[in-house]
Amino acid sequence: MVLHVIEPQYRIDHPTMRDVVFANATDDKSWPAAVQDCAGRSMIPASAGQLWAFRLEANGIDHANRYFMSSTAAIYFVADGKPHVAFYDTQRADGTDNLLIAQAQEGYNAHQTHGRWLIDMKDTTLTAMLQDAERRNRIVTPGSRKVPLNGAYANDASTTAILGEKQLANDVQTWLRAKNYSTGYNWLLNEQDLDKLGVNDQHAELRRVGVGGYGVNMDVLVAVVLCNYGGRARGVRENSTGNKG
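The structure corresponding to this sequence follows.
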């Protein structure tokens, strides 16, 4: 696998990312500022899976091993009396299908002021995000997992739900083992957290996924991040070449 530099952008050879152009990393920013920065390049912030795919091939180039904010949404909700968390990655080039991007400032304000961002379950964008997560089998039971890197990590439903696909989960597991990690940690809110936040069958709590790095161990996927927490982001844009893996 090779990292192709297209100054000041990159492309990688990971089978699921060959049509994705990656920008250079932003400086530390607030989430709304990162969304605006990416929009200025006609890009959106990368998903957790995209950030990991870049890390796998970058060999530390352009801060790849540092902590990054991602645009992967973690949606905590209740259905049929049971708590769930769904994960969603942006499908549209302008990000309007992802509330984390479309309402970045609103999310920042809600988490900054109230420590929660409750979305009405009847919201049409939220409904579409949940339907997509269900279709892609990206809904799991809340609660953190510490999973051995012996095959269990890549096979754990929370890992594939966050990263978006099984092959990438396998590749991340192999990379972490090569870096002498023995476990992967998927940090999720639990049922008690949801009760305290007021999550019920009428309101969902929206969080961001952070990709762990220096300062926050690289074996951590942080699916609890408030939208008023900042960090680095990396813009992405999909350029179709007719070569999808």
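The chain has nine helices and 13 strands.
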